Structures are given as structure tokens and as C-alpha cells.
Amino acid sequence: MANASPDLDNAEAQRQLNNNNRPISSGFWETECTSSKLFECSRIKALADERDAVQKKTFTKWVNSHLARVSCRISDLYNDLRDGYMLTRLLEVLSGELLPRPTRGRMRIHCLENVDKALQFLKEQRVHLENVGSHDIVDGNHRLTLGLIWTIILRFQIQVIKINTADNRETRSAKDALLLWCQMKTAGYPEVNIQNFTTCWRDGLAFNALIHRHRPDLIEFHKLTRSNATHNLQQAFNVAEHHLGLTKLLDPEDVNTENPDEKSIITYVVSYYHYFSKMKALIVEGKRVGKVLDNCIETETIINRYDALASDLLDWIEKTIGIISNQKFANSLTGVQQQLQAFTTYCTIEKPIKFQEKGNLEVLLFTIQSKLRANNQKPYVPQDGKLISDINKAWECLEKAEHERGVALRKELIRQEKLELLAQRFDHKTTMRQAWLNENQRLVSQDNFGYDLPAVEAAMKKHEAIEADIASYEERIGVVMELSSEMEKEGYYDIRRILARKENILGQWSLLKELVAGRRTRLEKNLALQKTFQDMVYMIDWMEDTQ
């Protein structure tokens, strides 16, 4: 899209200068300036909305003036260009060439394909479309749709203007080239002093002067007065429409306002130029403007490209810093390894591409300054925050965040590897403890004590050996508990499974101790019983011997 109005640029520069010169210690002036800024921002937004509405109406009429040659018409600029059909027809009319036939269908994919064909044709015509994609037009983006139409107007209406001045002086922009033509054609007319494409046209005298210069039979210029602006505008528009065949792109109220829209007036004035340029007297005057416009459009395109690339790079840096500054890692070894791999991919693939874009921005800015210097124009100053120094500062912040991310990732990887080794050790030990507990539970569940005192005494000694073995094994059970506690403290990702296995081991261990205690009780009772039986046998033998 074309650059903003120089008046707005100068106002913005003046506001910035005032802010820089403002005393820091004055709270009153800070409050006043803040209120002034809010009012100014709201005022600028209202003016922008009003300008967009006027541009929409003007561009719609301009499009219809050309589509009428193929019996087509649009009613809404934003909606009727979305399917790409009308856009294709418009380009065919303007270029005189046949574009690829539009795809049939009303689905979004068909609309995208048709608009893409039109945009591709513009690229083949060496029209640089910055930040304008087929999806923007299909989605009805207001600003980008207006920008696309304005780019088409520049390419097919303004770029072809050729003007040679009397002293061979080159104008500095496309607007200046057209302005120069207007000044040449209205020179000598009283009360007509065209210095811009906004306020100088409000009284309507400039439009009437252009018509009177070429067709004095249509206008009685000496009867016009500046005080009757609406009448002047209405007369010029009606005469141009009825006698010259120029579509009435503007209404008097669009021009006779505090802030007339510059692009709309330029679009309408260009139609005057093209009509009058058919006369032989204007053929020589148009040769130099084309080169000036090409250079200005090319420089403007490069500036827009620099601005867009700088914005994209700064947005990427800000987004990337937000991502890599997040110190929340996946709570697993596999997850951390994946994050480390993604970080390595960023460092080796994604970041080098952006670093190259950063270098290209510096080259692009040097190219812009060289072109402006060659055309004796003021150096281009990027918007605040998009200077090369600002981009370098943002890049340094990115590298700092990248370093911190790398260090934190490697620390987390070491911690997860340690936890994974602890989990493997825990699983190995719990498997061994489970097998040992099962075997000992099986042993102590058997009550094969024997049927005499020696056998029972032998079973008691064996049981005491089992108790001693179990008592010595308690330390090994404690090792399992320590491993579980350490993993729980470190926040191991599969801690539920670890705790479940720990509880199972503790339950089996408690059960084993209960079984051992019960078996000892039964052994002690059996031993006492066998001793009683032994005493009874001794008593019976004594009684038999005594008898």
C-alpha cells in the first residue's frame, strides 16, 4: 500500500519532537500531554475511518467505470471482489490482456484460487504486493482491499503519466509529478494555487480550471467565486461526467470538508489527466513523470518491504523470547529430550534463517538511503522501534534468553536422567524383594512341625533361623523406602506407580511378619504339647516298671 500522507507524517514527527522537549519534572504538562494524545489518537482514528469510507466509495465508482466496458458492476468493494471474478475482469480491462479463466464454484478454495490468479498476474506485471495475500481479499480485509485497488490505480493509471517540465526538473514523488501537471495547467487562473491534493481543491476552482484550460467552451470560469464551493464542485463534476464522459467519482461533500481524502482526489484527478493527455499538446510533457513515478513507487515499495520485514522479525523475536524464557519443562526424561531436540533445531535451523533476514534488513535500508540520496530526497528514518539499533538490542535479548534456556534444559536433563536411574534401581530391588517375600511367605505358611518332640524342636530351630533372616532383611526393605521417598521428593513423573509398588512391598512385609509371629505361636504350643506327651510316656514307663 502507498505511504501515509506527508501531512500526517509531519504531524507525527512534530508530536515526537514535542514529547522529547517536554520537561520531565512537570506533572501538569504530562497530564495535559496525555489527554492531548488520547484526543489526538481518537481524532486520527475518526479521520482514518472517514477517509476509508470516502476511498471505498471513490474506488468503487472507479472500478465500475472500467467494468462498465465489459458490462459488469460491483455494489460493495469489499464483498464483490472476494470471489476473484470481478478482480480478474478489472485487470483484463486495464491491461488489455486475457487472464486465466476463473475457477467455477463458490467455495472458499475456489475464491482463493481466483484471487491468487489475479495477484500472480500483478506480480508478472512487476507490481510488488507487500503483505497482500489471496486470503486477505477473500476475507474482505478493508485496509488491504483498499491498498490493492490503490496499487492497481498506481500501476495502470498513474505510472503511465509522462511529464516534461520546461526546465527539465524532476519531481520527487508520484504525487508531486501529478501535482506539477495540475500546476502547469492551472497557471494564470486567479485564486487557483494548487499546492496539494487535499485543501487546495475544496472550493472547486481547481477542477473547473482544469476543464476550462482544455475546453473553455464548457465553463464560464470568470463567473465562479470561491465562496460558492458546493456549486463549483457540482458544476465541474457534472460537466466532466456529461461532456467529457468521466465518471463522477466524488461528491461535493467529499471534497468540501475539513480533511479531504488525498487518494480519492488523486484518483479522480488522474481521470482528468488521462482524458486530457489524449491531446497532442500533452504528449511531450509526460515522458519524465514515468521514470519519477517508477523510482518513487519502487522506493516506496522497498520502504514498505523494510517496514514489514522489520515488524515480522521483531514480532518473531518477541514471540521466541516468550517461548524460550518459559522454564516449565516436561516432567519426564523423554519429554525433556524432545524439548532439547526442539531447542537444538531452533538453534541450528530456525535462528540462522532469521539472522540472515536481519542482515538483509541492513542491506535493504542501505539500498533505500542510496535511492533517496540519488533522487535528492530526505533520508528515510524508520519508525520508532524499527531502527537497526532497536533490532540489534532485541537480538541481544534473544541470545541471552537462548543461553539461559540451554543451561536450564541441560540441568533438567541431568535431573531426569538421575530420576530414571533411581526408578530403574527401585524396580530392580522391588522385584527382588517381592520374590523373596513370596518365598518366605510360602515357607512360614507351612506347619509341617513333625509328630515327636525332636522333630518339633528341629522345626523350632529352623523357624528361629527364618526369623533371624527376616530381621536382617528389614534393612533392605528400608532401602526401597528411601528410594521411593527420594523420587517423591524430586517429583518423579511416574510417582504413583512407585508409591503403589512401595505400599505393596510394605503390605507384604507386614503380612510376612504376622505369619512368622503366628507360626512361632503355633510352634510353641506344639512344642509344649510334645513335651507333655514325652512326660506322659515317661510316667507310663515308670508305672509299668514299678508294677
UniProtKB/TrEMBL annotation:
Residues 53-157, 172-277 form the Calponin-homology (CH) domain. It comes from the Eukaryota. Keywords: Actin-binding, Repeat. InterPro entries: Actinin_actin-bd_CS, CH_dom, CH_dom_sf, Spectrin/alpha-actinin, Spectrin_repeat. This is Spectrin beta chain, non-erythrocytic 4. It comes from Xenotaenia resolanae.
